[in-house]
Structures are given as structure tokens and as C-alpha cells.
């Protein structure tokens, strides 16, 4: 498992609701951990893209908004209700 020394905070948190759970995600690292440990689906193109963009965002200077948008798309694909002020 890759360990990331930095995190990339988002301007606004994303709150996901689904399967009797509420998840509050406010950074790229939070999103990656959520995708790996708390996801309703284990497969899908948006999930794969979000994991890739989160990992790349933590390892580089990529705009955190790329990971945020990919995370929101993966959440929608997985059937979460997404509450966000940015997407």
C-alpha cells in the first residue's frame, strides 16, 4: 500500500448518504480512503477513475478539483445521494 505524506483539502466537504450511512469527505485522502473502504460498489468506470485521480492528486500538484469531481461522479455511479456545494 502506498502511503501519502500530504493531503489535498477541498474548498467544501462532500456529504454522501446511502445504505443507511452518512459519509463526510473533505479532502483527496479522505476520498481515497472512502473509495477503498466504504464503497457500495466494487467495480465501475467512475470508481476506477476516481481512485486513479485521487492517488495522482496526492502524489503530485494536480488540482484537487480533479479528484473532487471524479469522486462525486463515482459516488453517483455507486448510488449515493451527493450533497455538495461544488458539484
Could you characterize the architecture of this molecule?
This protein has three helices and three strands. It is of the alpha+beta class and 87 residues long. A three-stranded antiparallel beta sheet has the order 2-1-3. Helix 1 (28-37) runs antiparallel to helix 2. The protein is globular. 32% of the residues are buried.
Largest sheet: 3 strands, antiparallel
Helix-strand category: alpha+beta
Estimated share of beta-strand residues = 15-25%
How do the strands of the widest beta sheet line up side by side? 2-1-3
Amino-to-carboxy terminus distance: 30 Å
Cα-based radius of gyration, to the nearest Å: 12 Å
SSE succession: EEHHHE
Supply the number of structural domains.
Answer: 1
H/I helix tally: 3
Shape: globular
How many runs of DSSP E, i.e. beta strands?
3
Helix content: 40-55%
Average pLDDT, to the nearest integer? 90
Task: Flag low-confidence runs.
Answer: none
